[in-house]
């Protein structure tokens, strides 16, 4: 069927923000289409509620659609079928597996959509004998139906629904990731592979179990990005495990915080000593004024001037950290 490109919309179950179009793949497809023309490798279904101008939702072929738009092709001939929601999700899952090569973001998003869809489908039925469509295929015994209704949709059901390209282990890791509440999802999706996200998640939870709130949730994104940078800096053969890198980073943070606390203590002591020194200097100034002494000229005063110069120099350096520029004229006069 010939359709206008402008009337083709994405698969409603694909989150285009979480699973964006890869421009490199689009460029490759543009070259292919230019050389061999476009073949009907986009599948779509009619979108209801658009009687005046027919709108279609594509099941797969999002990168091809992007390529066609960039090439400013206005019309193509593609197959249009009446696809139900379950089929749209299953096709999307296989496309995500191909486009994203089982990345953490792609896997998590696909499993989440499948879980939520199947949960919604199950809510439609109270009795096993009433099952229709995909639910009837997935739950071929009353026992499996009751167990899932009671405990929720888990990896066996989701894996069966998604098809042979998906393993229970992949689905299980994704479910653990999307159910995680102590770690930001963005932190987990920083890692390319679900197994890496799983290792990071376990390392963070293990450390927080040993010492609660060592790695607060709001710090997990920053930590994940640091680990990712370290992974990119070294070849795989020389990389430490993610667990080791997380512990090293935490140790570094602990050492830094310990140094900060020590510095704060020193500054507190300096403040106290400064107050005492100020009091003593004021007392000496008062006595000098009372005795009407205008000039101190002795051997000891020479050493005092040297001591004052060292003090002023140290204070000048320290006050720069507070954004205060020390009086240079005083320093010049003392010298």
Q: Tell me, what's the shape?
A: elongated
Instruction: Report the structural category.
Output: mainly alpha
Binned, the helix content reads: 55-70%
Number of helices: 14
* Major β-sheet strand ordering: 2-4-3
Number of strands: 5
Q: Which spans have pLDDT < 50 for at least 5 consecutive residues?
A: none
Radius of gyration: 34 Å
Q: Between the first and last Cα atoms, what is the distance in angstroms?
A: 92 Å
How confident is the prediction overall: mean pLDDT?
86
- Which band does the percent of strand residues land in? 5-15%
Largest sheet: 3 strands, mixed
Task: Summarize the helix and strand pattern as letters.
Answer: EEHEEHEHHHHHHHHHHHH
Structural overview:
The chain has 335 residues and is mainly α. The protein has a domain of 41 residues. The strands form two sheets. It has a three-stranded mixed beta sheet with strand order 2-4-3. Strands 1-5 form a two-stranded antiparallel sheet. A hairpin with a 7-residue loop joins β3 and β4. It is elongated and about 110 Å long. The relative contact order is 0.06. The mean pLDDT is 86.
Topology (SSEs and partners):
Layout (H helix, E strand, L loop, with lengths): L1 E3 L3 E2 L13 H14 L6 E5 L7 E6 L1 H9 L4 E3 L7 H16 L3 H20 L9 H6 L3 H10 L3 H8 L5 H12 L5 H4 L5 H17 L9 H14 L8 H49 L8 H22 L7 H7 L1
Parallel strand pairs: 2-4
Antiparallel strand pairs: 1-5, 3-4
Helix pairs in contact: 1-2, 3-4, 4-8, 4-10, 7-8, 8-10, 10-12, 11-12
